[in-house]
Structures are given as C-alpha cells and as structure tokens.
Amino acid sequence: MNESIIKLTEQWVQEQLSHDTTGHDWYHIKRVTTLAKHLSIDAEVNMNVIILACLMHDLADDKVVESEEAGLASITNWLEDHDVSPEDTKHILSIITTMSFKAGKGDPMRTLEGQIVQDADRLDALGAIGIARTFTYSGHKKQSMYDPTLRVRENMSIEEYRHGQSSAIQHFYEKLLKLPERMNTTQGRVLADQRAEYMRTFLEQFYSEWSFE
Ligand code: ADP
Ligand code: NI
Description:
It comes from Alkalicoccobacillus murimartini. By secondary structure, this protein is mainly α.
C-alpha cells in the first residue's frame, strides 16, 4: 500500500459525501482521520489500515448509502481494485462493520487499529463540534431542539428511548454523554472527558436560558 491509494480514496469519498447534510460530510471524515492519526502517535499500528478505515467508515451507513450491504460491497470492490491485500481488506471491513451500530450491536473492537478509529469517530460526536452535529442531524430528522416534557435522565435504557420521541438535547443523554466511559484508548478518554465537560457546561447554560425569568 502506498500514498496514492490514500489520495485516490480521499477523492472517491469526497465525491460521495460532498452533498451530505446529515452530519456525515467530508469534513467529518477529515476530522476523524486527523484525530485517529493523533491517537496513533507512539502506537505500533498499521497506519494505512487506520487511515483507509477512517476515510470509508461512513460509506456503509444506511443514513448515507442505499443499504449497508451495498456500501460494504462497494468498499470491498474499491479495495480489491486498488490492490489492497486481502488481509488488510478484511481488517478494514471488520472495523467498519463493528463501528456500524446495527451490525456491531456493541461488539468490542478487537484490534488497536479498530479501537483508534472508533475513538476518533466518537470524539467527533463530542465537544462543540458534537453539539453542532447533533442539532444538524436533529433538524434533518425533523426532531425538536428540546422538549421539556420528555423525561431526560442519564441512566434511561435504550429501549425506553426507542419507544419515545427524541430531541437534540435528549440525544446528549441517550448516547453522547455516555461515550467517555466507552472509549478504548487512554488518550481518547482524556479528550472525550474534556469534550463532555464542555457539553455539560453548554447544557447548564441552555437550561438557565430556557427557564429565564
Ligand atoms: P457517526 O458519523 O459519528 O458514526 P452517527 O451516524 O451515529 O455518527 O450520527 C451522526 C451525527 O448525528 C452525530 O453527531 C450524532 O450525535 C448525531 N445523531 C445521531 N443520532 C441522533 C439522534 N437521534 N438525535 C440527534 N442527533 C443524532
Ligand atoms: Ni462517522
């Protein structure tokens, strides 16, 4: 594997995601790749696997492509056509399927490469960027920004939420604020804690403005 497969993959992904408005645009992919490189400093990892998995990680998401199967097939063809080894192809596909919520069903990442890519993707769901992406996605799904009649507590089960409506603020409790404790790497955990802390500050300010008298 060499530089050129990465450059070609960047172009290929950018073409596919250039019109995305669901929070999975090309700049999300770029940030995740940069975060993953940062988390890889001092780690003994296959960097090409990490970068290619980051670049293609949302191409099998049915929010972005027609179906997960179609997305995985096109990723597989792409890697084969560019002479990526069967071993690396298998590794990249396993990272992408484990990351996808539906396919992975919370399975742990088995390799350090996968753990780094997953941490990088989770970090981009936190902090100021995470807040912005959540409201963007909620608008896309036509959910409300905040519904004070929804029960909001951090330890609500996923089933309880599935039966109810959601809102952007609700998603903070459903998923985002739980991400720090699920981080795989120490460095990822440090960054996640900082970004979650910023979100809690945002929530405090949000509630104080909401109930301003
Ligand atoms: P990723 O691209 O990081 O894998 P997702 O596909 O799960 O993330 O979601 C994309 C963005 O939309 C994230 O910032 C996430 O927090 C946000 N999001 C996902 N589901 C919801 C939801 N039900 N309500 C609000 N925001 C959501
Ligand atoms: Ni992503």
